From TrEMBL, chains A, B, C, D:
Transmembrane segments: none annotated. Gene3D superfamilies: Isochorismatase-like. This is Isochorismatase family protein. It comes from the Bacteria. Residues 10-148 form the Isochorismatase-like domain. Pfam families: Isochorismatase. It comes from Solirubrobacter phytolaccae.
Length: 175, 175, 175, 175
């Protein structure tokens, strides 16, 4: 498993809506990584589940031009237009942040693996209530998903001391 | 490893008897999943160990028509009529709940793997005293069994927001 | 990985000497399993490291006819006469108990794997000071060793409710 | 995975500089292992990141003749002269100590795996702030790196009771 290149990645922001909660730290990290993705021209795709019930995507994740999709299936690959949006980027690695680790993130990750992509789940930028988060992470690893965390992925994306100048500051952890 | 389809599953309820204890939460989850299996027409098979000593299967797991088998071997595959009952369903995935994680559930799971089935153990619907539960789960994974939990499996079975209306409410965890 | 048959096993008792400590529970479990092995005619081989410094093997592990070997190498396979004693039993599965998890047990396990045996380490019947025990267990799994625990192995060895009558009682855990 | 021979190893000391912190125990263990490597004639290579900012390598790791390299990339394999220095030793196993577990150690380890070496990371002689250490270790294992710890590696290097006389005493843990 080689290091991850940002030129190979597409970032998928899954159901970052008030109805799915998420603690402040998780949300701050997901937002920080989204900001870095934008700076590195990593394409971003956003999904929402029943926004009339769970609310719109939280502030800061969607900018003009960011595609936002309604997701009536728990796994994004069950909704053909979302899967197409991901594969149309021609990126080989999907990076997932959002909610919930053991349901929509899990089912989306497995669907993307089945579609032939490499899948990274950012463990400190996804969440699920209580013990469901840890259970979801274990099952993601068992299913063949690569776990990473914001800091590690960011330093893999920039790769050099000089390149690290692009990292958004301050960060929600020690850079 | 693709997502689990309920049409492929058979639920095996192992030794859910007073003599094997089980905390209230584990029992509630096992019962909830059994109720969902019934709603989705997933076939159910029940085993018992020495019912004259350990008591009958607890209330709510057996309904008219549910096959109940005496299991003189710790692993169900050691008793030919139980293994036949499982394979006769023609379901390719066995989902296990019950007691005890590291003995009867473990030996049954390994026997079903040897018989060519995919085996899922529902980690929050199986139990064993003290540290034996966690040890059993680790060994199940090492043996090639897939671990899942009630909430994750339920959402895989229903797959869509619309389909989730079949989930029994209230559930013994946040849906 | 099928269930373990007692007819395939040889039990290796590694350095169960006062000089290597071991808490009372670990020692009780190692002794209980040794007693069961004897009842099931599983051959037993005992090793000792510098007995003049660390003391003889603790009481209860050696009976008339039990072979005891001095082990000048940390791994038993580094001492040809010990490796021969194991392979001469023609048993395909070596079951290891004793001390220390991350040094002599680890190096012995890897050497036996290299010699073509299946190797089981009984996690609650081996020990090492402080965090070294857990580290050793993790590395054993990573090296291809199967971890098990006394209770689970015992029930695999006896396999049936009827056969369980041979289990020594009382046991140092709930049977 | 056979036991590790010291004749096959090269020790790489990564960014052991004041700017990267490190608790006293981790530093003592890294230093102890470096001393043992020197006694066993295991070649040692040292890297530094921006020494004008993070300080020079800490006392005790560099002796006359020890090659020290400036590392402008987080992974050492991204700097050709460092990768050449490692491969020029003709040693097949790289042993890594230093900072930070999830960034420079991780990226260096993956780069060395890609270059065809076997890679061992010494888990109690590497560090990263807070939860980043544990996350880094998990990802190293997932990437195909072998984790070990100072005590276990030292006893593998010396292999016999007699050979253990070379171990530096006192050690920062129970020998």
């Amino acid at each position: 498993m080689p290091l991850t290149n940002h030129e190979d990645c597409v970032l998928v922001v899954i159901d970052v809506q008030a109805g799915f909660g998420g603690d402040a730290d998780t949300l701050a990290r997901a937002h920080w990584l989204t900001t870095l993705a934008r700076a590195l021209h990593v394409p971003i795709i956003v999904t929402e589940e029943e926004p009339e019930r769970h609310g719109p995507t939280r502030t800061g994740f969607v900018e003009p031009g960011t595609p936002v999709f309604r997701k009536p299936t728990f796994g994004l690959a069950g909704t053909p237009e979302i899967l197409s949006a991901v594969t149309d980027t021609s990126r080989t690695t999907a990076v997932l942040v959002g909610f919930e680790t053991d349901v929509c993130v899990y089912q989306s990750a497995v669907g993307l693996l089945d579609a032939g992509l490499r899948v990274l789940v950012v463990e400190d930028a996804v969440g699920s209530p209580g013990e469901m988060h840890a259970r979801g992470l274990t099952r993601l690893r068992d299913a063949g998903v690569t776990l990473t965390h914001c800091k590690a992925l960011a330093y893999e994306w920039v790769r050099t001391v000089e390149g690290a100048s692009v990292l958004p500051r301050p960060a929600p952890f020690a850079l």
